[in-house]
Design brief:
The complex is a heterodimer of chains A (338) and B (287). With 338 residues, chain A is an alpha/beta fold. Helix content of chain A is 40%, strand content 19%. Chain A has helices at 2-20, 59-74, 88-97, 111-118, 146-159, 174-190, 207-219, 233-243, 270-282, 313-327; strands spanning 45-50, 77-82, 102-105, 125-128, 138-143, 164-169, 195-200, 224-228, 246-251, 261-267, 289-292, 299-303. Chain A has a six-stranded parallel sheet with strand order 2-1-3-4-5-11, with helices on both faces. A six-stranded mixed sheet of chain A has the order 7-6-8-9-10-12, with helices on both faces. In chain A, strand 8, helix 8 (233-243) and strand 9 form a beta-alpha-beta unit. In chain A, helix 2 (59-74) packs across helix 9 and helix 7 runs parallel beside helix 8. The termini of chain A are far apart. Chain B is an all-alpha fold. Chain B has a single domain (4-269), classed as ABC transporter involved in vitamin B12 uptake, BtuC (Orthogonal Bundle). Chain B contains eleven helices and no strands. Chain B has helices at 4-26, 34-52, 55-79, 84-108, 128-146, 148-158, 160-165, 170-197, 208-218, 223-243, 251-269. In chain B, helix 3 packs antiparallel against helix 4 (84-108). The longest helix of chain B has 28 residues, at 170-197. The chains are: A alpha/beta (338), B mainly alpha (287). Chain A binds chain B through residues 53, 55-57, 172, 197-203, 205-209, 211-213, 215-216, 219-220, 231-232, 234-235, 237-238, 257, and chain B through 3, 6, 10, 13, 104, 107-108, 112, 114-115, 192-193, 196-204, 206, 237-238, 241-242, 244-245, 251-252, 255.
Chain lengths: 338, 287
């Protein structure tokens, strides 16, 4: 009897779930593409999808600050939501149906669904924070994070006394790999015989694994370390504090997260987000992949004012010189396409 | 050089959880919710540790929360005779959602769940909780095999009707076993967060609860064997990190290595199963 009831409830839930979504089979009215060249009258409406909570003091928080900047500078109406695998398409669609002019998806995973959705909603522009696909009213940013990682590598290479530096990653994904390659290139540019140690935990949230991997890299001799461990960052910083070695923050300004942090490789979404929203408002947006880096103010290598004697004036001048050359376009930092 | 102490530290959460689950399974209850119970304990240890400034209060909170959640699950699986896998899955989802929400609420107010007070060290790298591990594993092994209570508990997992006719309450025995399971899971989750990293992150247990369940089978439902299996996995975890970058093999091979070895050992050691006869089956008195 119990089992019959459970099945009945399950069937009911499935039914309710089906009726709640977008009506299947209903013709979606496709309006002629007016994407480019039509300024927006009235209030600009901008929505943001993030993979995690916007208070995560990491990747999602970066985007939220960008959204808030759009709200403040352009007086836009903004909305945001956490969207993961299953809900991504529904969320993209409902924002577009609600008449949002710009829908931002903060991550590679939103690129393909957004480009597909853009075909159904020509009056909405879909832009993701990473990815390689685009259309007339869809595109992506490509944050040139490699530039800041390159500078961090240069500083590490200049300052290391053991001749070994390390990079600790969470999952082994192309975007993380590309930043690590830039860090290694920077370290080698500063000290050609430097040994670059690379460890991945394979996991995003495993704080203990991040600490274990960091401890191992330090045991192998690394004395300057950078990370891409996302939520597991406390494990990385904890190991550096315990062993009194220096490290760099990544993505967010993490200079206050540990006394061992001498600088952070930072993404600032404010400038690129605001200029994108302006283009949408003026009807000047053209779909495509946009590389944004230090020149656009989207990527920054922020030194920690509290680092003190850990960073020598000579090393700082060396890195500042390289930063100037990057800004002047004389130094092109290697990056992977993914 | 192999850092044995480090391996012991990082395999301790698994060993605690696997020992507790061994006791639980011996009584006939499969606790799929172990992962969630550990996660809740991890959250409780760090948040209470930070709030009170005492690592001991943090560990106590971890144990209390874990026992409470374990008994809630026990209420469903033992008293209401719900499907054990379904109830355990519900507990996992509940704990993931609850700790994630509390974490996000705290983060919204600018609170950070890192930098909790450390457990004091008695010897370099050895804190009292780590020292407690072999003692408790010994107690569990002795209690299960050498005491009348242990015999009744094991019988509840083998043939509950016989236990009932001998005058014991299967429900009571299984609830006690779930309470003990919670105690160990609390120590494991608390040690993972407060003992090792003094920080909490969403989903930080990262499947350790499920690995611990596998280690019970791996350890053939014997506490000392479960401890040994945990240490083996811990050693492999260390080895995979140490070997990364020193061979042309892809990193994914190394991260999969501990699970690969566990699988191979299970295939070999799994022969002639030792699983309790009534494992996973609810006991209904009126049957």
């Amino acid at each position: 009897m119990m089992r019959v009831w459970m099945w009945a409830i399950l069937c009911l839930m499935v039914l309710v779930g089906c009726t709640g979504g977008a009506p299947e089979g209903k013709e979606v009215k496709v309006e002629p593409n007016v994407g480019g060249g039509k300024p927006i009258e009235g209030t600009l409406k901008v929505a943001l999808l993030t993979p995690g909570n916007v208070n995560d003091s990491g990747w999602s928080a970066i985007a939220y600050r960008g959204l808030k900047a759009i709200e403040k500078e352009l007086g836009a109406e903004v909305a945001n939501k956490v969207a993961t695998d299953a809900s991504t398409n529904d969320d993209l669609r409902s924002y577009a149906q609600d008449g949002f002019h710009l829908v931002l998806g903060h991550g590679f995973e939103y690129n393909a669904p957004a480009v597909a959705m853009a075909k159904e909603f020509p009056n909405t522009t879909f832009v993701t924070s990473s990815g390689g696909e685009f259309g007339p009213n869809a595109g992506a940013f490509r944050f040139y994070m490699e530039q800041a990682f390159y500078l961090a590598g240069m500083m590490a290479g200049r300052l290391t006394t053991t001749g070994k530096v390390a990079m600790i990653g969470g999952p082994d994904v192309p975007s993380i790999r590309s930043t690590f390659k830039a860090f290694a290139a920077g370290a080698k540019a500063a000290k050609p015989d430097v040994v670059v140690i690379e460890k991945f935990t394979g996991k995003n949230d495993d704080v203990a694994a991040a600490k274990q991997a960091t401890l191992q890299a330090i045991a192998e001799g690394a004395d300057f370390l950078i990370h891409q461990t996302n939520n597991a960052a406390p494990g990385f910083f904890g190991a550096c504090e315990e062993k009194k070695v220096y490290c760099f923050g990544a993505n967010e300004n993490q200079n206050d997260m540990s006394p061992q942090v001498i600088a952070s490789a930072v993404i600032n979404a404010e400038a690129p987000f605001v200029s994108l929203a302006k283009e949408i408002k003026e009807g000047k947006y053209v779909g495509g992949i946009r590389l944004v880096g230090m020149v656009e103010g989207a990527v920054e290598f922020v030194k920690n004012p509290k680092a003190g004697a850990a960073v020598t004036a000579e090393a700082q001048a060396f890195v500042d010189g390289a930063a100037d050359r990057i800004l002047a376009g004389e130094l092109v930092v290697p990056k992977d396409e993914f | 050089m192999i850092p044995l102490l480090l391996i012991a530290q990082y395999s301790a959460p698994l060993a605690f959880a696997a020992t507790g689950e061994t006791i639980g399974q011996k009584s006939g209850v499969l606790n799929i919710g172990l992962e969630g119970i550990m996660l809740l304990a991890a959250y409780a240890s760090v948040s209470v540790g930070l709030a009170t400034g005492s690592p001991w209060m943090g560990m106590l909170a971890a144990i209390a929360c874990a026992i409470a959640l374990s008994l809630i699950q026990g209420f469903f699986t033992i008293i209401l005779a719900t499907d054990q896998v379904v109830a355990g899955t519900a507990v996992n989802l509940f704990a993931l959602g609850l700790t994630g929400t509390l974490f996000a609420l705290g983060a919204a107010k600018g609170e950070s769940l890192s930098g909790a007070p450390r457990l004091p060290e008695m010897l370099p790298g050895v804190d009292p909780v780590l020292l407690l591990l072999p003692i408790l594993v010994g107690c569990a092994a002795w209690g299960l095999t050498k005491t009348a209570f242990g015999l009744a508990l094991r019988a509840a997992g083998e043939y509950p009707a016989a236990v009932e006719s001998a005058g014991f309450s299967v429900t009571k025995l299984r609830l006690i076993a779930q309470g003990l399971n919670g105690l160990f899971a609390g120590l494991g989750g608390g040690y993972l967060a407060l003992g090792l990293v003094q920080a909490f992150a969403e989903n930080m247990t990262s499947g350790r609860g499920f690995v611990a369940i596998a280690l019970v089978t791996f350890g053939r439902w014997k506490p000392w064997w479960a401890l040994g299996a945990s240490l083996l996995i811990g050693a492999l975890e260390w080895a995979q990190v140490a070997m990364q970058g020193k061979s042309p093999l892809p990193i994914q091979f190394f991260t999969a290595l501990p699970y690969l070895v566990a699988l191979i050992v299970l295939v070999i050691a799994g022969k002639g199963t030792m699983a309790p006869g009534a494992l996973g089956l609810a006991y209904r008195r009126e049957k």
